[in-house]
Design a protein that fits this description.
The complex is a heterotrimer of chains A (about 280), B (about 350) and C (about 300). Chain B has about 350 residues and is an all-alpha fold. Chain B has one domain: MetI-like (MetI-like fold, Orthogonal Bundle). Helix content of chain B is about 65%, strand content about 0%. Chain B has a two-stranded antiparallel sheet. In chain B, β1 and β2 form a beta hairpin. The N terminus and C terminus of chain B are likely disordered. Chain C has about 300 residues and is mainly alpha-helical. Chain C has one domain: MetI-like fold (Orthogonal Bundle). Chain C is about 75% helix and about 0% strand. In chain C, α6 crosses α7 and α7 packs across α9. Chain C is flat and about 90 Å long. The C terminus of chain C is likely disordered. Classes of the chains: A alpha/beta (about 280), B mainly alpha (about 350), C mainly alpha (about 300). Chains in contact: A-B, A-C, B-C. At the B-C interface, α1, α2, α3, α4 and α5 of B face α2, α4, α5, α6 and α7 of C.
Chain lengths: ~280, ~350, ~300
């Protein structure tokens, strides 16, 4: 891919202890802070004791073998996971200091601040325009001109505007898979979230579409906090500033093994399991 | 949320959330929204309960109306044979008998044909483009109003069956089943017409049941050297047995309650005769014929009592049927479903999203 | 037959593979296939016979006159004869039934699919939902004549008279479970990923339900309603002692009302040829309406789904 390896703007000063929860990185503000988060589907524990900061304005990649709970983790960050099943959560997730698992949280407001892009493109069966305007309309009344402006800016941000500007009122289902996924990104951007969660956003796409999505993530990282789950290590190294490695223990329960600046995780991991994974000896 | 939200720039970089204005409002809940959301949820529940209310209300109304007759005749009603409207003596046995006999004929005819249709329209005997229209055509019979099937019964089926009935009488009259001279209308034509009408039910549900048997099982059986029909008899039909039985029970429920077509071809004579060529009467038929003209409370009560019996039997049959089909679904569900995900509709989304 | 060759000589192995199955197994396959196809053909005969007969008997007398005239008195042949009143009566009663059953049926279907399904539904609601679904399934199997008896007890007896309203009520009871179950089926076809996407944009339950689920399922829900309408339009038994029937124009909702199906029944055993002819003609009209509704609704659903 073309764009250069991005380095984290702030290098951590303290070394990371092996398998310990990530130490805070000074100078950076955590947008989302998972504190000893454990996650259960019914009685099945899926995730154990994860403490991880998603830093404001940074791209954080979450990598790991399948079944390691990385999707579960990201879906716990905007509480979308609880729509998928009976779940129980221990610990806390703080969004700029507010615990999102507090009973006072309004889930609709929360999810507008923390947007999400799913593994498979899931455009609504309506026009491209209506897809992007959907979330905006839900939030309040806007005039036609306001809506037009928001839709255009969101589609431009998602690098889709030039491809669809003449077909805004055609069905979104006529787009290619890659375009559909960028539409889903535009749809999430249109409500102006602080954080964008991406759950393997390119796993269902061809290499060229994948590249476009990666370029898009790179551009969006200028103004957004992004957390991206991926099973593709090259992708993680290309797009992210920080990387968290998840894996399972003997009981098939997911946990975080290591967190650090992406370059370090890939070149000088401290934990042997991370080492095995990034060197392709496992998973 | 207001449009001002869009004015604030996203994601200013700052170490302090307070300073950057990043203490975002994610807690305020509009009271109206909460009320509407709760109200919506309760409204849906209210509507949903209405369907339960209807069933309970229905049972209550019919039971109430039947009470005069229940008090007068008690359970003796079930095996008493007299039906004398001016004399106000009522017994249900001829109607129960006619209902059961015609339904039995219907099932005997419809089960083999229904299963054959289900097999032909689900297995790969025919190319796919022929299979589903075939199933559709058979199901179309269910869409024809039963009064029209009855009309066809009077003018086409009875004349067509009459030589056959005469033949049965001539050569097999030593059998009590065919021991009376055929009139034309009678229990046999009624059973045949019922068989035609329950065929779509049996065929359609058996087909779904067979399609639910995982394809790998078929391949496994074939790869062990079984022929197609050996696979069907030794694997598919046993695997789908409870579901097919459920389909048959649903068909039975339909046959027991079918009114118009039977009324038009059974001859409407409340008698108990061993001969299928004889006239008969069924519970739905007597309700259809006498209800509008029933004046006396006891007569109405007796008809309501009959309705109650029919209601109870069909409820029972349907409950058994639904449980059988559900049992099948659960068995299939265990073997095909990998994990309990939310994707309850996800096996079919390609129908919406190619 | 044995799949294992008796010796490992490749020649005899090839012979084993080429050797046909024993005669019994071959004939069993052919015989059963022939029987299955024979029975399937047999199953199609009644449908064809009924449709042919309706065309043969019904079409010749299908003149514009029948759509505008009232039924002629029995035995009188020189006045216009038709069933305009019955068409109107059927339409009135089906409309009443549709108006009554749609809100209850569609909302119950939404409840079953959007609140009572999926892993996220809370335990008690799920229990209620599966109970309601069970009751709806059972109710759909209740004989239509029982719905008529019920409507008689609820409306005819309390209001002391046969009425179009009672007929419409009975038909609504028949339509209710059909609308409910097909609405749930249609909503189930909407992928959950779209509900998730909507929730991730901050939509609440009402918004997700009506803007995403119901919108996407609208054609399926419409199909269900049309199928229920088709079923109700052809029902006779529940109308016999609720709406009764009449030979004149429908006269308000609280008076007996004519209907196509009851007219067919009443005229089916008439000794007057012109009345049985009219019954056939009415059958052609009724079956045309009913089949057209069911085939068209299926056709359109399929096509719309394909385009999407």
């Amino acid at each position: 891919m073309k764009f250069p390896q991005t380095n984290p703007p702030h290098k951590p000063t303290n070394p990371l202890g092996a398998a310990s929860p990530a130490a805070p990185i000074p100078g950076l503000l955590p947008a989302l802070k998972a504190k000893q988060l454990s996650f259960y589907y019914g009685s099945q524990k899926a995730l154990e004791d994860v403490s991880l900061d998603i830093y404001h304005g940074q791209v954080t990649a979450i990598i790991g073998p399948s079944g390691c709970g990385k999707s579960t983790f990201i879906k716990a960050l905007n509480r979308i996971g609880e729509l998928e099943g009976k779940v129980r959560v221990e610990g806390a997730v703080e969004f700029f200091g507010q615990n999102i698992y507090s009973h006072r949280i309004n889930l609709n407001r929360l999810r507008r601040q923390i947007g999400m892009v799913f593994q498979k493109p899931n455009p609504f069966p309506m026009s491209i325009y209506d897809n992007v305007a959907y979330g905006v309309r839900i939030g309040g009344r806007y005039s036609r001109t306001e809506l037009d402006a928001i839709v255009e800016s969101a589609l431009s941000s998602a690098a889709l505007w030039n491809e669809v500007k003449d077909n805004l009122h055609k069905s979104a289902l006529g787009l290619s898979g890659g375009q559909q996924q960028r539409l889903c990104i535009a749809r999430a951007l249109a409500v102006k979230p602080q954080v964008l969660l991406m759950d393997e956003p390119a796993s269902a796409l061809d290499p060229i579409s994948t590249m476009k999505i990666e370029e898009l993530i790179h551009t969006l990282s200028q103004e957004l906090t992004i957390a991206i789950v991926t099973h593709n290590m090259q992708q993680a190294s290309r797009v992210s500033h920080y990387t968290a490695f998840f894996s399972t223990d003997e009981g098939r329960i997911g946990q975080m093994i290591e967190f650090g600046p992406t370059a370090e995780i890939f070149t000088a991991p401290t934990h042997p399991r991370t080492q095995d994974y990034v060197e392709g000896r496992f998973g | 949320m207001q449009s001002s939200e869009h004015d604030s720039s996203i994601g200013a970089r700052a170490p302090d959330p307070q300073k950057a204005g990043l203490i975002l409002d994610i807690t305020t809940t509009d009271r109206w929204d909460l009320v509407l959301e709760q109200g919506f949820s309760w409204l849906l529940r209210g509507f949903a309960l209405s369907i339960v209310v209807v069933l309970v209300w229905m049972s209550w109304v019919i039971f109430q109306q039947a009470r005069p007759a229940i008090q007068q005749f008690g359970l003796k009603f079930l095996w008493s044979q007299d039906w004398d409207v001016p004399g106000l003596t009522f017994g249900a046995l001829p109607y129960i008998y006619g209902t059961l006999v015609t339904s039995a004929i219907a099932l005997i005819l419809a089960i083999p044909v229904g299963i054959a249709v289900a097999l032909v329209s689900s297995e790969n005997f025919l190319p796919l483009w022929l299979r589903s229209p075939l199933g559709f055509l058979v199901e179309l019979i269910a869409a024809i109003p039963s009064v029209i099937v009855g009309l066809w019964g009077i003018f086409v089926l009875i004349p067509f069956l009459q030589p056959l009935q005469q033949g049965l009488y001539r050569y097999l009259n030593w059998l009590p089943l065919f021991g009376t001279e055929p009139y034309g209308p009678g229990m046999l034509p009624a059973g045949v017409i019922l068989g035609i009408m329950v065929l779509p039910t049996i065929a359609a549900i058996s087909r779904d049941v067979l399609l639910a048997v995982p394809g790998e099982l078929r391949s496994a059986s074939m790869s062990l050297g079984a022929t197609r029909w050996e696979t069907i008899f030794k694997l598919l039909l046993p695997a789908g047995a409870s579901g097919i039985l459920g389909a048959v029970m649903l068909g039975l429920g339909r046959a027991l309650g079918e009114t118009m077509a039977v009324t038009m071809v059974i001859g409407n004579s409340p008698q108990i005769s061993a001969s299928l060529l004889d006239l008969g009467y069924t519970i739905p038929a007597v309700l259809a014929n006498e209800f509008a003209e029933a004046l006396d409370n006891l007569h109405i009560g007796a008809l309501m009592y009959l309705a109650l019996i029919l209601f109870a039997i069909t409820l029972l049959v349907n409950i058994i049927a639904v449980l059988l089909v559900r049992l099948m679904g659960q068995q299939g569900g265990i073997s095909t479903r990998v994990e309990p995900t939310i994707n309850t509709g996800a096996d079919q989304p390609q129908r919406l999203l190619p | 037959m044995t799949a294992t060759p008796t010796n490992s000589d490749p020649k005899s192995l090839a012979a084993e593979l080429l050797h046909p199955l024993p005669l019994g197994r071959t004939w069993f396959t052919y015989g059963m296939t022939a029987i299955a196809f024979g029975l399937t053909g047999l199953a199609l005969i009644p449908l064809l016979a009924i449709l042919i007969e309706i065309l043969r008997q019904g079409l010749p007398h299908l003149t514009p006159e029948v759509f505008v005239s009232l039924p002629a008195p029995a035995g009188v042949t020189d006045v216009p004869n038709g069933f305009a009143n019955a068409i109107l009566g059927t339409l009135i009663m089906v409309t009443i039934a549709t108006l009554l059953s749609i809100p209850f049926g569609v909302m119950t279907g939404i409840f079953l699919s959007e609140l009572g399904r999926g892993a996220a539904a809370s335990g008690p609601v799920q229990t209620v939902a599966s109970f309601v679904r069970f009751i709806a399934t059972i109710l759909s199997g209740v004989p239509s004549i029982i719905a008529g008896v019920f409507a008689w007890g609820v409306i005819v007896q309390t209001m002391k008279g046969f009425s179009a309203l009672a007929g419409g009520f009975a038909l609504a009871i028949i339509m209710l479970p059909i609308v409910t179950l097909t609405t749930e089926e249609a909503l189930k076809l909407v992928p959950d990923s779209q509900r998730l996407a909507s929730a991730a944009l901050g939509a609440n339950r009402r918004q997700t339900t009506f803007r995403i689920a119901v919108t996407s399922a609208l054609s399926g829900i419409t199909t269900g309603i049309l199928l229920a309408v088709a079923r109700a339009a052809g029902e006779t038994a529940p109308l016999l002692f609720t709406a009764l029937g009449s030979l004149t124009w429908p006269d308000g909702l609280l008076k007996p009302a004519p209907s196509l199906s009851v007219l067919i029944f009443n005229y089916s055993q008439s000794p007057f040829v012109e009345q049985t002819e009219l019954a056939w003609t009415a059958s052609a009209v009724l079956v045309g309406l009913v089949l057209l509704t069911s085939i068209l609704s299926r056709f359109f659903t399929r096509r719309r789904l394909k385009i999407r």
